[in-house]
Amino acid sequence: MTVRAAVERVMPGVLDDLKRLVAVESVSADPGRADQVQRSAELVAELARDAGAASVRIATEASQPAVIASWPAPPGAPTVCLYAHHDVQPEGDPALWDSAPFEATERDGRLYGRGTADDKGGLAVHLAALRAFDGKPPVGVKLFIEGEEEIGSRGLPALLQAHRDDLASDIFVIADSANWEVGQPAFTTTLRGLADCYVEVRTLDHAIHSGSFGGVAPDALTALCRLVATLHDDQGDVMVAGLASSEGPDLEYPEDRFRSESSMLDGVRQLGTGSIVQRLWTKPAISVIALDATPVAKASNTLHAVARAKISMRLAPGDDAPTALEALTKHLVANAPWGAQVTVTAGDVGQPSTIPFTGPYADAARSAMAEAWGVEPVQVGQGGSIPMVAEFAQAFEGATIFVTAVGDPDTRAHGANESLHLGDFRAACLAEAQFLANLATP
Fold first, then answer.
1. Does 193-246+283-350 carry CATH code 1.25.40.10?
2. Rounded distance, CA 91 to CA 101, Å?
3. How many CB atoms lie within 10 A of CB 323?
4. Helix or strand or coil: residue 198?
């Protein structure tokens, strides 16, 4: 039986199990659903055993359970570690979904539901590849399914240290990115890093009447607005000194396509200068993603003493996240308006990555993807962050890392109506199974 026929044979069962996985509300950020995250890990372990794993364990060194399973390598064959994560983002307002967020629903060639693409779809790709070989892959396989990726993978270093021998491999396949577009597969070769912080502005000892004191005494929220406005110039380029940037790849991202995929409203201008892919992948970006202030519904004629914001910064490949966070902190403190008291509290950091794509393993992966999709894959960057890439590269120096995808620009990961294109999902399953077969061919 050909690899293609074997994958088609297992696809109905794989889709059924993906739907079972989506039904588990494994939101790692919600302490009230810790039992669901545990249930999700137990289901992943069950599926790994059903796929013929020689060993399966639920690892608890991180704050949320991870699953580690293995299929021993035949003599002389390399070992591949297949990574995905079983935790998901909160669903947000259910009213914004066209179908129940935790009930996988097929519609117009896509499968809708939280985690269908990010990243239970990646886990399902791994299961399909293993089942295509009836649980006896032609190379060694280690399955690593993390449980806290959506809250920053803070326990990943502890997991890698505790289970280094269980995870050590020649190749790591991280199925947690996005393809260039539907029908066009991609390998991700650059990832931006992440650094965020909380900035608090104080101008008064306590709130005061805006009529009695306004015009002389500054309020904290207006001061905070002026402070965050210093983060960009009039064109939208980041104004924090000391951040790295580089030239983008020679890949065209048409403006009309970007506007459509990003849902920009008519008349709204793009930020920054340079090509779109450069601004998305190889330049820093800063956003104010949360604000603590009086809600409009509870507003009064008051000058408020304190206001807070959470600031998220994406970092270009080649930058260093702690150093960049220090630069952002210095900028915020130095640009305090009207002598306001500014306090910056560090948040999470994740290192950016550059992922080489050369050598015989890369040739095997490229050939498998071209066979599955019928077109040559492209190499892309991602504006988002996958910090475990840098963690793996540091922990397993010399190993080859590939970042693959099941999502596409319309996946809407983290948002309402997240979905998976079923045609591309089948191709991704075939590509991974074919890759394992290619590795076993001298």
1. no
2. 6
3. 14
4. strand
CA distance 150 to 29: 7
What 3-state DSSP class applies to 416? Answer: coil
Cα-based angle 382, 384, 48 (whole degrees, multiple of 5) = 90
- Which of 350, 405, 397 minimizes the C-alpha distance to 188? 405
Where do we find the tokens 């295509």?
132
Q: Is 374 exposed, middle or buried (0-12, 13-18, 19+ CB in 10 A)?
A: exposed
Ranges of CATH 3.40.630.10 domains, the chain: 3-191+352-439
| Tens place of pLDDT per residue across the chain (442 aa) | 899 999 999 999 999 999 999 999 999 999 999 999 999 999 999 999 999 999 999 999 999 999 999 999 999 999 999 999 999 999 999 999 999 999 999 999 999 999 999 999 999 999 999 999 999 999 999 999 999 999 989 899 999 999 999 999 999 999 999 999 999 999 999 999 999 999 999 999 999 999 999 999 999 999 999 999 999 999 999 999 999 998 878 889 999 999 999 999 999 999 999 999 999 999 999 999 999 999 999 999 999 999 999 999 999 999 999 999 999 999 999 999 999 999 999 998 989 999 999 999 999 999 999 999 999 999 999 988 887 888 899 999 999 999 999 999 999 999 999 999 999 999 999 999 999 999 998 6
CA angle 60, 61, 64 (to 5 degrees): 55
Give the residue from 274, 131, 251 showing the smallest Cα distance to 186: 251
Q: What's the CA gap between 30 and 102, in Å, rounded?
A: 15
For 427, how many CA atoms within 13 A lie in the half-sphere containing its CB? 26
**At a CB cut-off of 8 Å and minimum separation 6, what does 201 contact?**
220, 221, 223, 224, 227, 306, 307, 308, 336, 340, 341, 342
Q: Cα 345 to the chain's mean position, in Å?
A: 24
- Token pair for residue 309? 């914001």
- Tokens 């009039």: give the residue: 234
Residues of CATH 3.30.70.360 domain(s) within the chain? Answer: 193-246+283-350
Nearest partner of 141 among 363, 435, 442, judged by Cα:
435
* The token pair that represents 73 in the structure block: 């390598």
According to DSSP, residue 74 is labeled P
Tell me yes or no: is domain 3-191+352-439 CATH 3.40.630.10.
yes
**How far apart are alpha carbons 168 and 159 in whole angstroms?**
12
